[in-house]
Amino acid sequence: MKIVYLYPALAIYGGIERILIDKMNYLAREYSQDVYMITSDQGKHPIPYHLDDRVHVIDLDICFYTRYKYGLIRRIWMYFQMTRQYRSKLRRVLSEIQPDILLCTTVYGVEELLDVKGKRPLVVESHVNFSHPGNWIHSIKKMYDHYWIRKADAVVALTKGDAMDWRRISKHVYVIPNVVHLNESGKYSTCSNKRAIFVGRLVEQKGLPDLLTVWRLVHHRHPDWQLDVYGDGDILLPHDQLSDINIQVHNSVSNIFEKYTESSMLLLTSIYEPFGLVMPEAMSCGVPVVAFDCPYGPATIVTDGEDGFLVKNRDCQVFADRVCQLIENERLRQGMGTKAILSSQRFTADKIMPQWLDLFKKLKS
Fold this sequence. Notes:
alpha/beta; Rossmann fold; 2 domains; 7-stranded parallel β-sheet; 6-stranded parallel β-sheet; 13 strands; 16% strand
C-alpha cells in the first residue's frame, strides 16, 4: 500500500513532527508499507528526529514563508502565485506516486488535496480540538477550515470527546489516540527530588497565568520546592518575579526525558488540550501528573487518584492542594509514578498503529 502524508516541513522539535515521524517509521519498518512525506517548505532544514531510510521525503520547494519578507499587497499576490504552483506540483507528484491513501493534519493541505486527489481517500488527522477557543478572526478561519474538512473521507480525532464534536460536521469520524514516543532509557524518576516540571509551548493555550498562580500557592507552603519550565513561545514570563517563587525557565531541550527523570511530578495547566503528549511522556519516566480536566486530553490519559490527579478546570486552589498533597507524601508520589509507567504503555506504536492499518484497509476496500 502506498501511503502519502502531507505537511509543511519536518523542521522543528515539535509534537506533531514527532508523531508523524514515529508513525511513518512504524508503517515502513513493521508493516513494509510504501510511505511518502510530501512537504512544501522543507528546503535545507534538517529533519529533527530519526526518519527511517525507507520513508521517501519529497519537497515541492515552494517555501511559503519567504513571502513574509515583503509588504502586505505583494505578500498576498505571492501567496496566490505560490498556491497555484503548489497545486500544480502536488498534482504531478501524486500522479507519479499513485498513492492508495492520503493524510494531512487538521488545517494544513485539506483544501489543496481535495482539489487534486481524485478518487483517492483522504484522511484528516485532528491535532486541534474542534471547538478550541479564539477571537473572531480564529472563528472565521475555523468555519472556513471546517467547510473543507467535512469533505474528507475520514476525520481521526484523538479523544472520544473531540470525536463527538467533529461528528457535528462529518459522518466519518474515528478515534485513534496519538502514538507517543515513550521513555526507552530504562531510567526512571525516584520521585525524591524537590522539583516539579512543566513542559510546553509558552502560548495562551497552556494557561501560564494559572500555572504561576498555582505555584505561588504551593511556594507559600513549600518554598524548598522548585518548578522547572521547559518551552519556547510568544509569552515572556517575568523572570524577575519567578525567582522569588523558585521557578526556573529553560528553552526547549532535545533530552527532555532526562529532565522528566529528575522531576517528581508534571504540572499541566492547559485551557484546552487535544491530547497532551507531555503527560504520557512524563508518565513513562515514572512521574505522576497533576492536570486541569480541560477538553479533552487529560481525562483520556490520567486516571484521577491512580497515576495522577485531575482537577476541576481552572480551580487553582484545588490544583495547588493536589500538588502539595504529592509534595507531602513521597510514598504517594512513588506509587503513582509506578502506576504511571504502566499506564503510559497504552500509547505505544504497537498498541496504536494496528488501528491505523485497519482504517487504511477499510478506506481502500
